[in-house]
Every structure is written in C-alpha cells, then in structure tokens.
Design goal:
The chain is of the alpha/beta class and 243 residues long. The chain has a single domain, classed as 3-Layer(aba) Sandwich (Rossmann fold), CATH 3.40.50.720. Helices cover 42% and strands 15% of the residues. It has 7 helices and 7 strands. Strands 3-2-1-4-5-6-7 form a 7-stranded parallel β-sheet, with helices on both faces. Helix 2 links the parallel strand 2 and strand 3. The longest helix has 29 residues. The N and C termini lie far apart (49 Å). Bound molecules: NADPH dihydro-nicotinamide-adenine-dinucleotide phosphate. The site of NADPH dihydro-nicotinamide-adenine-dinucleotide phosphate (NDP) has 31 residues, from helix 1 and strand 2. NADPH dihydro-nicotinamide-adenine-dinucleotide phosphate (NDP) binds next to helix 1 and strand 2.
Length: 243
C-alpha cells in the first residue's frame, strides 16, 4: 500500500549533515528517499535508523554528477510519487591553491555540487510544478560568503548554489514552490578531516564546531508550514562567524 506521508528526497544522506537531515525529516513525518554515492554499508545503517521513526526509507544510490544515472533512478519513482521536499546536500571538497589545482580537482567539485544541483533539481521539478507545491533546500557553505584560500573550486560552486537558489525561487514562486539555501560554517563531519581544528576554533564566537543536527533543525523549519513566506534566501549557521 502506498503511504500518504509527504516524501523528502535528501542527496548525500548516508552520513554527516545529510543523514542528520534525513533523520530529522523522518521525525517530522516524511518518508525519505535517501541518496548516496557508493558507501552501501553506511546507507544501510542510515536506513535502519531513519526507519526507527516509523517512516519508510528508500535507498537511492547514484552519483548526483551523472545526469543519466540521476534520471534512470528517479524517473521510475517520479512516475508514481512526487517528493514534497528536495534537499540538495551532496557535496565534496578537493582543496588546493588555484595555482596548483588539477583540472580534475576543479571539475569534480563543480560537477558534484553545481552539476548535482542541476541534475537532481531539474529531474524533480516538473513533478513538483505539476503538484503545485514543494520545498527545495540547497546546502551551500560559509565558503560562498567568505574568502577561503585553497577553496576556489568549492567557493565558486557554493556561491553558484546561492545564485541558483535566488533565481530558481523567482522562477517557481507562483507554483507554490519555495527555494532556499542554508550555509553551514564548520560542522563536525568527516568532511572536516585534515583541517587544523585548533586554529579554526578561535575564529568561531561560540568556540565550538556545529553539530549536523543543528543544521538539520534549520532545514526542518524551512520544510515546515511555519516557513511558508520564506523563499530565495540564504541562511548562515556558523556559530556567529561574521561573513
Ligand atoms: P560528508 O563528507 O560527511 O558526507 C557526504 C555525503 O555526500 C555522503 O553521504 C556521500 O555518500 C555523499 N556524496 C558525496 N558525493 C556524492 C555524489 N557525487 N553523489 C551522491 N552522493 C554523494 O559531508 P558533510 O555532511 O560534511 O557535507 C554535506 C554538505 O554540507 C556538503 O554539500 C558540504 O559541502 C556542505 N557543508 C559541510 C560543512 C562541514 O563543515 N561539514 C560546512 C559547509 C557546508 P558516499 O559516502 O556514498 O560517497
């Protein structure tokens, strides 16, 4: 029997911020379409935890950068059901000073973050427009707002996400689809591995890293009825760093 609960598609949700968002939205009553790229074991564990909230969790392994793979997985599902919420969260970083940056380091980051936004959003959007409702939340980054040496690729992609958020919000507002971005600062996930945390902490007024769950609370609000007059905005969640 098909569930009557709203569906949330969360990309990059097998761990880190995406997993916290999937858990929170499940707690809010959404069935979850949980995308990840290749870590099947982490995804299985994530599914088990998400389903403890009494919702269903459908695992959708695909590379968001691969437009053909995105469509092959999503189109058969979209023929039957339409997600109410899409959270474009999948992202990677491959830091290097621009002078030393390999073409692949540039294109991998741009095609995962910006290409992933384009591939997944475009695939889901027609169904959302038809349903005349929806919420899209794009996970950007403080790096879109502040200079970060070594992250020209990542900053360009995340600033692009904010620009795309504003333009798409204006395109689909009359269809009752709200589009916002969330820009986390330093959040405790595997993505921070290798960064000098001791040098970063003094720059954060709250003097600690953020938790994935804290980002998930903001995303949850943006997907709720309470956020019904908010669109085209980028919200920073960074412990007070002024950027
Ligand atoms: P993690 O590295 O902890 O997790 C990344 C997740 O994304 C995994 O589930 C991974 O799946 C998935 N993923 C990576 N590449 C792809 C892809 N091409 N297609 C599908 N899924 C993919 O990252 P975070 O949780 O830290 O980051 C989540 C988002 O938040 C990213 O967009 C990141 O840029 C942003 N962000 C993070 C910050 C932080 O401090 N952590 C700060 C600001 C922004 P798999 O394991 O299968 O590869």
């Amino acid at each position: 029997m098909t569930s009557t609960r709203k569906i949330a598609l969360v990309t990059g949700a097998s761990r880190g911020i995406g997993f916290a968002i999937a858990k929170q939205l499940a707690q809010d009553g959404f069935d979850i379409w949980l995308n990840y790229r290749s870590n099947h074991q982490a995804a299985q564990e994530a599914k088990k935890i998400v389903e403890e909230f009494g919702t269903t969790c459908t695992l959708l392994p695909f590379d968001v950068a691969d437009s053909k793979a995105v469509q092959e997985v999503l189109n058969p599902l979209l023929a039957k059901q339409t997600p109410y919420a899409l959270i474009n969260n999948a992202g990677i970083r491959k830091d290097n000073l621009l002078i030393f940056m390999q073409d692949k380091e540039w294109t991998d980051v741009i095609s995962t973050i910006l290409g992933g936004f384009h591939n997944v959003t475009k695939t889901v959007l027609a169904a959302m427009i038809h349903a005349k409702q929806g919420r899209i939340v794009n996970i950007a980054s403080s790096a879109a707002h502040a200079p970060v040496p070594g992250q020209t690729n990542y900053s360009a992609a995340k600033a692009g996400i904010i620009g795309a958020t504003r333009s798409l919000a204006a395109e689909v507002a009359k269809r009752n689809i709200l589009v916002n971005a969330v820009s986390p600062g330093f959040i405790e996930t595997e993505m921070l591995e290798g960064l000098p945390i001791d040098k970063i902490l003094p720059l954060i007024p709250l003097h600690r890293l953020g938790k994935p769950e804290e980002v998930a609370h903001l995303v949850s609000f943006l997907c709720s009825e309470k956020a019904s007059y908010i669109t085209g905005q980028a919200f920073q969640i960074n412990g007070g760093i002024c950027v």
